[in-house]
Structure formats: structure tokens, C-alpha cells
Amino acid sequence: MINTLPIRKPHLRIRQTASYLLRRPPMSPIRFILFGRGRSGTTALVSLLDGVKEIHCDGEILSTPVLLPKLYLQSCSANSPTIAYGCKVLSYHIRDVQPLLQRRRFLHHLDKAGFKIIYLQRRNLFLHALSNIRARVSGYSQKKTDGPTKAKVIHVKPESILDWMQRSKRKAAYELELLQGLDVLALTYEDNIQDSSQHQPTVDKICDFLGVPSSPVTSAYRKQSPGRWQDAIANHEELTEFFENTPYAQYLQDS
């Protein structure tokens, strides 16, 4: 019998995949992929789903190259102690990390293997860009609920945010290309993750999509960003002026 949890050490992952190929144990009856981009609430959603009694949800198990990625995911599903198994796969894992011959068909291959797809997006490109930049500059991120921390105030070049938003738009187009023709449950950070009052309804919705009984959940993580983006950006007036006459002004207004 192979191990009960996904293994991150390369040689052990190869052994796990090989054992799955030889033995072909049954996979979890229900399996899914949480797909999207980083800084979109995926970590919080993994935590929420992993709190459902019948679900085991892993994080980014494809963040480093894996031999035969699809089979590795199937082996992880076969190892799950629950009836439903899922994990987080970010779009850059497919585009940049994994050794795939058909990158644009990877999600289709998983779909054929019985993996349902939950797609989490973040509509506000401005706040998404700020979140990514602040995470890199100050090191803040989703964090387990171990007490309050004070957000660092940083200076951000407007051009850096513009570059992030433009790249994010291109990545969104790539994601839609990967998902074309697939049955997907689409969620957004703003509607499903940002407000904690929406966490339980979101989990209920996902469980209905998967065909799994729901249960009361709470996330073990809390976001580290302040309530107002202006409170964390020293030159917030400069950013507002820079974007106010651009197509991206709507994102500042929405925030």
C-alpha cells in the first residue's frame, strides 16, 4: 500500500507514482482541482475545503517539477483517506513549471481522469497587483490565526502596478484558453473569499458541485492586508493620480 499523503521529495514522489502505476489502486470517488492564480484567495479556500469532513484538500503539490504530473495527481487521489480529494493547481504551474508536452490540454486530461475544476479569480486587477507587490516587498501573506500583525507601509511605483495588471490580464486570457470547453465552477475572490460571511455559503456551493455533504467550516488563515489599500501605500495619492484617467481607474473606485 502506498503512502497516505502526497510526498514532496522528488525520489519519493517518483516512487509513489510508480507504485500507483503498478498497483492501480482506486482513486477517491470524487476529485477536483482548485485552479487560478496566486494572491486570489486560493490558500484560504484550500483551508476551508480541507475542513469539510469528507474532503482532503492539498495545497500546491505541483509547484516544483514532477515526473508524469497527471499520474502523480491521480496517485495522490488514490492515497486520500476521504471520499473527495482535491489540490491547488495554479496557472503558472502549467505554463512554466511542469514538464508537459501538451500544456494547453493538461486540464482537459485531468477532466477526462475525473477531476472537476473550481476556478477562482480576482476581478480587481489593481488590488491583485498590490497584493502581489506587497507580498514580495514586505513578505506579508495569508497567515494562520496566531495573533495580529501590523501591516508595513511601502512605496510602490505606479509603473510596477501597471506592469502587474497587464501581465495579469494576459494570464487571465491564458487561463480561459486552458479552460475552454470544460465544465467549471467559477468563483471570485470578491464574492466568495473577501468577506468571511460568504465562506460557508461558498463551501456549500462547492460541495453541491462536487456531490459531497457539506459541514460547518472556518478558515485557519486570515489575510494580512489592511482594510484600505491607501493605509498600506505611502504614495497612494500618486497612484490615484496616475491611474485616474486610464481604463484601470474603475479598479481604484471599486476598491
UniProtKB/TrEMBL annotation:
Gene3D superfamilies: P-loop containing nucleotide triphosphate hydrolases. InterPro entries: P-loop_NTPase. This is Sulfotransferase.
